[in-house]
Amino acid sequence: MNKEEIFAQVERRKQDMIDDICTMVQIDSRRGEPQEKKPFGIGPANALEKALEICRREGLPTKNVDGYMGYGSFGDSEEYIGIIGHVDVVEVGDGWIDPPFSAAIHDGRIWGRGALDDKGPLFAAMYGMLALKDLGIQPKTAIHIIFGTNEETGMEDMHYFLKHEEKPLVGFTPDNKFPAIYGERGRAVIEVWGDEQKVIEFANEYFMNANVNGDRLGIAVKDEHFGEMKIRNKLLLHAKDKMGIRFSLSYPTCDMDKIMQQIQIKAVDLEVRLVSNSPVVLHHKNSWLVKTMQKAYEEATDTSAQPTTTTGGTYAHVCDSIIPYGPSFPGQNGIAHQPNEWVNIDDLVACAKIYAWTLYKLCTEQIPENPLEEGKL
């Protein structure tokens, strides 16, 4: 099978893909109050059930994993390739021209909350998979299209899924950028608490007009994969009898214990708390999965590119057998989470072709025993 045949099948089902994406965008899937078998509320549950309904319409066996996630299956093997995206969305906010759940189409774009993050790309990946199914290709390794419902507000869905289902052998999440991504920065939230005057002095000395790399705090670490430390989202906090300052770190490979110790050295007579921490995820950029997906991207786009890393936190931060892969192309600016979110229809078709060709390469080749772990840095 050559890529032109697969791309032609994607084109034949272009309108079906657009229709299904619009159907999904029209579902308000913001997090709500939990109910039985609907752990994140009615909206995400409705979106999950609609996604599974579409899978069944396409002849895919489905499973709803207790309302946390669900999937459709193509192929019979126990081990599988996972396409993992999410159907939940962030809050809407103000400033919309078209209603946020209208899925309006104009200017060659689909407009609406979730059009780009992540319903459009997830269904582009699904239609890439369906192109293989429609052409009668029999995968050596099954493919599961997996729909999450809590990516935006904690990824509890992914943690639950991994406790109750086998994780994919390999796979990707279409929730970041191209080309192949071999690492995600670490993320931490830190708070410093104490006497109001001391906290103000601390904030003025170490954050006022300071570089964002944390050099004043003595934490300006960097590496060859992610570059420099970045301090973000500084916020003063008030309690009954004390004050605090919260800030987040987007960090490269480093020893977080030493980072905390260094901050405590600077925060004299103050309490330093590590509120949350999501460590760096870093795979070898020459691993089998990264190289295979990178080559597929280059073949599908007739371009040359190098694997890269990302600042964004995706399902790949929780599921260590997948990597981020699309949908944004090099040079495109992110507009997810903004008012008037949109996705370009031509880009969706291009993504579907890339995903189809990548899945073809993954599901028809022999996947090695350690496709990502071997050679992990």
TrEMBL record:
Gene Ontology biological process terms from the UniProt entry: L-arginine biosynthetic process; proteolysis
Molecular-function GO term, any one: acetylornithine deacetylase activity
Q: Which Gene3D superfamilies match?
A: Zn peptidases
- Origin, by domain of life? Bacteria
Cited Pfam families: Peptidase_M20 (PF01546)
Read off the InterPro entries from this record. ArgE/DapE_CS, M20A_pepV-rel, Peptidase_M20, Peptidase_M20A
Q: Which cofactor does it need?
A: Zn(2+)
UniProt keyword annotations, A-Z? Hydrolase, Metalloprotease, Protease, Zinc
Q: Does the keyword Zinc apply?
A: yes
| UniProt similarity note | Belongs to the peptidase M20A family.
NCBIfam families linked to this entry:
dipeptidaselike (TIGR01887)
| Annotated protein name in UniProt | Dipeptidase PepV
